[in-house]
C-alpha cells in the first residue's frame, strides 16, 4: 500500500475525464477537486477524442444512462483504450436492473477496463454469480465476496474493487482488504461514484493499477473514518461537507495512523 | 396525523423511483436517503418497467423537461398506474409557463396521479383558477388557497398538497393544514422537489395517501423548523446541511413536540 | 463601483434564466437564490421564448453542451437579443478544447453577448491570443491579462470579465481590477459558473453592464474573502456552505470594509 501516491497525486494534479451519473456529478467533480485532481466532464461525442487526450485517466459511470449516452460511453471507452489511458468503470445498478447489465456486458466487449469498482450486487452480476441486490444498493447474499471479486477480475482481466464495509481489491490473483470506513458513506448517494473517480485519479499517477486501486480505497475510507472520529455527531449532511474538507486537508501521516488493511493472497 | 409512519418508513426503507428535475436531483436523492428511503433515478425509457417494478412508489417531476423526457414521463406514469404503484406528481412552474401547463395537462390525461404537490401558482394553474405566479415561485393572488386546492383535488380526483408557509392537504373533501416550517425552505431551490419525493416515500408505506401526504408535509416542515430553532443563525447553505442531518436524525417524539396542524373539514 | 446595486438586487429579486452546465447547475441555482435573485432553468427549446420573457437577464453557459443543447443555446441567445434582455456568456473550456472554441465562435455570430466571463485561457481563446490552458482551469502564459481582456472586449464589442486571483473587468476602454478573493474559489467547481449567473443578476437591475460586471465581481470576491477571514479553517466543503450563507447574509457595509479595486484606465 503506497500511501505516498496521495502526495504524488496532489503534486501532479492529474486531469480525470468523467462520464458521470447525472445524479451525483457535482459531488464527484468537487470530490476530485478537493483531493487534488482536476475533473473534466462532457456529454458530447464530438469532443470525446480531445477530452481523453487531455486526461490522465478516464472514469465511465454506467449508471443512469440514456441511449445517446451509451453511444458516447462506447466511443470514450474505445478512445481511452486506443490512447492507452487508464480506464475505470462503475457499473451502477447492473445487479438490480437487467437492462443495465445487458448494456454493460455489451460495452465491456467494446472496450477493456483497467479497473471496475462496484458494490457486491454489481460485481456479482458482472461475474455471473447469483446475488440479491436491492435497488441501487448492494443487497445481500451468501456468496464469498472474495470469490466473487476474484471471479469478476479473472473473467474481465482487470483489477476489481468490490466495495462495502470492507473493500476487497483484487487483480484476480492477489487480494487486499481495506477495513477502514464509516456507515455514513451509505447515506450519501455520491460516495460510490466519488470513489470510482478517485480510483481513476490514482491510476493517472502510477502504472500499477492494483496499487492505485488499493490506495484510492484506503485514502477514501480512512478520510471518511477520520471525519467521524473527529466529529462524532456528524450525520447525512454534515458528513458530506466534512468529507470534502477531509479530502483536501488530510495528510498521508494522518491516514497512516488508522490504516487497516491486509494482504489476503499474493 | 400518523407520525409513526416515519418509523415505518425507516424500517421498510422503501425504494422511490424519481424522474427528477435536473437542477435538484442530487439533493432529492440525498434527502430521500437521509430520511430512510432508497432513491433510484433513471432517464431511460428502456428500463422504465424494471425501475417501476423495483419501486414502492414513483415521483414524477414535471419541471425542466425536454421532449424526450416527456415521453419517458408518460411511459413511467402509465406503468406506475398499471403496476398500481403510488404516483406523485410535482408540476414545477406550470403556473408561470404556458408550455409546461399544456404539457402537464396532456400528461394528466395519460395517467392518473395519486398525489399532486405544488405551490399556489402551480395548483391554481392545474385547477384552472386565475393566479399570478412569478417564475418558479408561488406568486400571489387573492384566491382562497383552500378553495383552490380543493378544486384541483376534485378536478383530478387525487390528493392535493398546496405547499407554502402553510401546507394545505386535501382529498377534495377533507382538508388538513400544517403550519410548521421556516422561511429558509424558500432559499433552497430543492425544497419543493425534495418534499414531493418524500411524499412518495410515505405513499410507499401506507395505502392511505391522504394520510401519507399529511405526514410527509408535517415531517418535512417540522424538521426544517427544528433545524432553525436549534441553530438560529443558519442561512441558505448551512440550513441545507442541517436539514439533511435533521432528516436522518429527527425522531417522531421530537416532531410531536412542535407539530402544529388542524383538520379544517371532514 | 456601485455596491448599492446589491441592495437593489435584493429588493427587486430579478428572475435570471440560466442554461447551465449540468455539473454545477444546483449550486448556481442555490447561489442565485441565496444572493436574492430568482433562478429559472430549462433545457427545452419549446419554452425558450416564455422563459426569456419572464427573465430580467439570461446567462448561457457554453460548457458541457451536447448537439441538442447548442441549438437551444442559439435559440435562447437570439431571443434574448430580440427581447433586449441582458445576455451573459460563460465560455467554459474554450481554451482547452478546440471543439468548444469552434462552437462558441459560431454561436457568437448568431447572437451578441452583453458580458462574457471566463478565465484567462477562455478569454485568450476568444480573443485569438496564444495561451496555455490546462483542462478546465485557467492555465498560465506570458500574456498581459489586461491586454487579453481588452482585445476580447473590442473584438466582440461587449464587457469582458477575465476572472482569476485578480478579476479584470473591461468594456474595451475602461479597465477595473478587483483584487479581493480567496484561493478556495478554485477548489469549488461551481465558482465560475456561479459568478457568471450573478453577473446576469446584476445586469437585470441596471442598464450599465460595465457597472453590473464590476459590482458582481466585487460582491462575489469579497463575500468569499469574508468567509475565510471569519472562518480561517474552512476547506473545500465548508467553504461552499459558508459561501452560500455569505451570499445571503453579507451586507453592502461589510463588503465596503474590505473592497479592494482600482480603475486602471478610463
Automatic annotation (TrEMBL), chains A, B, C:
Family indicated by similarity: Belongs to the Thz kinase family.
Binding site for substrate: 41, 190
Cited Pfam families: HK
EC code: 2.7.1.50
Protein name as catalogued: Hydroxyethylthiazole kinase
Transmembrane stretches, start-end: none
List of residues binding ATP: 117, 163
Function of the molecule: Catalyzes the phosphorylation of the hydroxyl group of 4-methyl-5-beta-hydroxyethylthiazole (THZ).
Required co-factors: Mg(2+)
Top-level EC class: transferase
Top-level taxonomy: Bacteria, Bacillati, Bacillota, Bacilli, Lactobacillales
CDD domains in the record: THZ_kinase (cd01170)
Species in which this protein is naturally found: Levilactobacillus paucivorans
Catalytic activity: 5-(2-hydroxyethyl)-4-methylthiazole + ATP = 4-methyl-5-(2-phosphooxyethyl)-thiazole + ADP + H(+)
Pathway: Cofactor biosynthesis; thiamine diphosphate biosynthesis; 4-methyl-5-(2-phosphoethyl)-thiazole from 5-(2-hydroxyethyl)-4-methylthiazole: step 1/1
UniProt keyword annotations, A-Z: ATP-binding, Kinase, Magnesium, Metal-binding, Nucleotide-binding, Thiamine biosynthesis, Transferase
UniProt record, GO biological process: thiamine biosynthetic process; thiamine diphosphate biosynthetic process
GO molecular function: ATP binding; hydroxyethylthiazole kinase activity; magnesium ion binding
UniProt-listed InterPro entries: Hyethyz_kinase, Ribokinase-like
Lineage top rank: taxon: Bacteria
Amino acid at each position: 500500500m503506497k500511501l505516498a501516491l496521495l502526495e504524488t497525486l496532489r503534486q501532479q494534479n492529474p486531469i480525470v475525464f468523467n462520464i458521470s451519473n447525472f445524479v451525483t456529478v457535482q459531488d464527484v467533480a468537487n470530490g476530485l477537486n478537493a483531493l487534488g485532481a482536476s475533473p473534466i466532464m462532457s456529454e458530447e461525442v464530438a469532443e470525446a477524442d480531445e477530452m481523453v487526450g487531455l486526461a490522465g485517466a478516464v472514469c465511465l459511470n454506467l449508471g443512469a444512462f440514456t441511449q445517446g449516452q451509451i453511444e458516447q460511453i462506447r466511443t470514450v471507452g474505445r478512445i481511452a483504450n486506443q490512447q492507452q489511458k487508464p480506464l475505470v468503470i462503475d457499473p451502477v445498478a447492473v445487479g438490480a436492473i437487467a437492462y443495465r447489465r445487458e448494456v454493460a456486458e455489451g460495452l465491456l466487449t467494446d472496450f477493456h477496463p483497467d479497473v471496475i469498482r462496484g458494490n457486491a450486487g454489481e460485481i456479482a452480476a458482472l461475474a455471473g454469480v447469483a446475488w440479491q441486490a436491492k435497488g441501487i444498493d448492494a443487497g445481500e447474499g451468501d456468496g464469498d465476496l472474495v470469490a466473487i471479486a476474484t471471479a469478476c477480475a479473472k473473467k474481465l482481466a482487470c483489477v476489481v474493487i468490490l466495495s462495502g464495509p470492507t473493500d476487497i481489491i483484487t487483480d484476480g490473483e492477489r487480494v487486499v482488504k481495506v477495513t477502514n470506513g464509516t456507515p455514513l458513506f451509505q447515506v450519501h448517494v455520491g460516495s460510490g461514484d466519488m470513489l470510482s473517480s478517485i480510483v481513476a485519479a490514482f491510476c493517472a499517477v502510477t502504472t500499477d493499477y492494483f496499487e492505485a486501486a488499493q490506495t484510492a480505497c484506503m485514502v477514501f475510507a480512512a478520510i471518511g473514518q477520520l471525519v467521524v472520529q473527529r466529529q462524532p455527531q456528524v450525520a447525512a449532511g454534515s458528513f458530506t461537507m466534512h468529507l470534502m474538507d477531509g479530502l483536501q486537508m488530510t495528510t498521508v501521516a494522518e491516514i497512516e495512523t488508522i490504516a487497516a488493511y491486509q494482504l489476503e493472497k499474493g
